[in-house]
Design goal:
single chain; 368 residues; UDP-N-acetylmuramoyl-L-alanine:D-glutamate ligase; 9-stranded mixed sheet; disordered C terminus
Length: 368
């Protein structure tokens, strides 16, 4: 078996238009105040645009599928995605309003989103064409990536039945599956019980899962069990040990490759055994160093040039997927994920192609 990066990735799920005013200080919310802002940046946002755009920069063929509304903002999405070099033929226009986010990020603090769900709220995955390969390529994609299900309520309705159906279709078609989460807004006991049922239902069908710690805590609370911190590189005194517990929690529920990010605390990786990898053609082509792993990896420093964290998690996911598709070792794939995230934070990811040493190898990699 081999890993073939040239079959590429189909990225589906949440898409929106990001409207980001620039600030020199924290904005005023005093009624009646006039607060001066800088220029407005208008860009494609959400998991579909962010992850697919980063994958393309990394040299992975990619196509997208998502819904936009039949309003003015809906006419903006196509040109914004085309600017990233993405094929927009999988973007479907449906009756309703296009999702958008106002991204509020004053200097030196994390961002806040004022978000409108629009037609994302009715996206259930049933119209996704899994045969829709990257432009110019005859083959179907190797991997389906689904992003931000917490912002796609129809996809996770009925305790995740539509999402499970989409993942089932992908697995039946021979695709590997990948899932990235987003923070659940305003979690309470009822929402956490719902998300526990959703994840219990779909995680056995997920081959690669790359959420943040905040995503998981908001979804199901702090339920990650204590795990043995003696495996591989883990250290019980390391601040990333909670991340490692979450990664193990995901693998215990059926995921093959779990990578949990924690911002400055870095990443934690846990992987399943050889039998789980052998059950998926794409994963079966990976080298044996992926089997039964558990380790942490530091985040890379962003430096003084750090601009914004919006899309950094999606960029890390893209780097991880690119590393897996090109047959890299676990540590190499995580290094690529960390580097891609930092390039996004610094604002340099889309300015020019990644240097050759950061791009996945185009050749197929024999399993070892």
């Amino acid at each position: 078996m081999t890993v073939d990066p040239q079959r590429g990735v189909l990225v589906v799920g949440h898409i929106c238009v990001d409207l980001q005013p620039s600030f020199s200080a924290a904005p005023s919310m005093v009624p009646g105040d006039l607060f001066a802002t800088g220029p407005l940046t208008i860009s494609s946002g959400g998991s579909v645009a962010n992850t697919a755009g980063a994958l393309r920069v990394l040299g992975i063929p990619v196509t997208v599928a998502a819904d936009v509304g039949d309003d003015v903002l809906g006419t903006v999405v196509g040109p914004l995605l085309s600017r990233l070099g993405l094929d927009t033929s999988g973007i479907r226009t449906v009756r309703g309003t296009t999702s958008y986010s106002v991204v509020v990020q004053p200097p030196g603090v994390d961002r806040t989103f004022w978000h409108h769900g629009g037609v994302n709220t009715s996206f259930d995955g049933s119209a996704v064409d899994l045969r829709h390969g990257a432009r110019g390529l005859p083959d179907a994609p190797a991997l389906l990536h689904v992003g931000y299900p917490s912002l796609l309520p129809a996809l996770v309705g009925e305790d995740g039945a539509p999402l499970a159906a989409l993942l089932d279709r992908a697995r039946d078609a021979g695709l590997a599956t990948s899932l990235d989460l987003a923070v659940v807004s305003g979690p309470d006991d009822a929402s956490r019980a719902h998300w526990q049922r959703v994840l219990d239902r779909v995680l056995p069908q997920v081959d690669i899962c790359s959420p943040s710690r905040d995503d998981l805590v908001s979804a199901v609370g702090r339920v990650a069990p204590v795990c043995d911190a003696s495996d591989d590189d883990a250290d019980g005194d390391d601040p990333g040990i909670e991340l490692q517990r979450w990664a193990s929690w995901l693998v215990d529920r059926g995921v093959a490759i779990a990578v949990v990010s924690g911002g400055a605390d870095g990443f934690a990786v846990a992987t399943a055994d050889a039998a789980r990898f052998a059950s998926v053609p794409m994963l079966a082509g990976l080298q044996q160093s992926w089997h039964t792993r558990s380790f942490t990896a530091p985040a890379l420093p962003t430096g003084d040039a750090a601009l914004a964290t919006t899309g950094a998690g999606d960029a890390a996911t893209a780097g991880l997927i690119a590393g897996i598709l090109s047959g890299r070792t676990p540590h190499e794939a995580i290094a690529l994920a960390a580097d891609t995230a930092v390039r996004r934070i610094r604002g340099s990811l889309f300015e020019h192609p990644a240097p050759d040493e950061l791009r996945p190898a185009a050749a197929t990699i024999d399993a070892r």
